[in-house]
Amino acid sequence: MAERKRAGARRSLAAAASTKGRRNDDTPVEHPQHPDQITLPGTPVPVAVAEPVAAPPQPREVPAARPARGGSKYTAVLDDDTRDAFEHLARVARRRLGRHVDRIEVLSALVLLAADDASLRDQVIAMIGKQAPRR
């Protein structure tokens, strides 16, 4: 019965290549850096030709980011009627101001107005009291 070889007992490829098919002359074989630098025995060794190096790409201009706003982020789930009223309010503000108005600008203005005006604050609280609690 043949003895089974262990996994670590296999010789390396370099050791196997050095014993098989050895060249008759003892000149060292240089391994080429590039496939086009292979030399045949008896031919002169090619001189490496410097290839032009491409210039590094110019950095792209980064568009200006929006100014960083501190604050908290909230997600609001609105029913269809409330969403329509909110979008309508934002459209009216855009028309009157003649510029793009973000919805956060509308919401922030409403919150600040309700916080400053006692009458408006009471109206907001009364409207919240009329609605059924959401859970």
Could you describe the 3D structure shown?
It contains four helices and no strands. The chain has 135 residues and is mainly α. The model has no long low-confidence stretch (mean pLDDT 75).
Summarize the structure.
The chain is mostly helical and 135 residues long.
Distance, first to last CA: 78 Å
Average of pLDDT:
75
How many individual β-strands?
0
* Radius of gyration, in angstroms, nearest whole number: 39 Å
Q: What is the helix content? A: 25-40%
Instruction: Please work out how many helical segments DSSP would assign.
Output: 4
Q: So what's the overall shape?
A: elongated
How much β-strand is present in the residues? under 5%
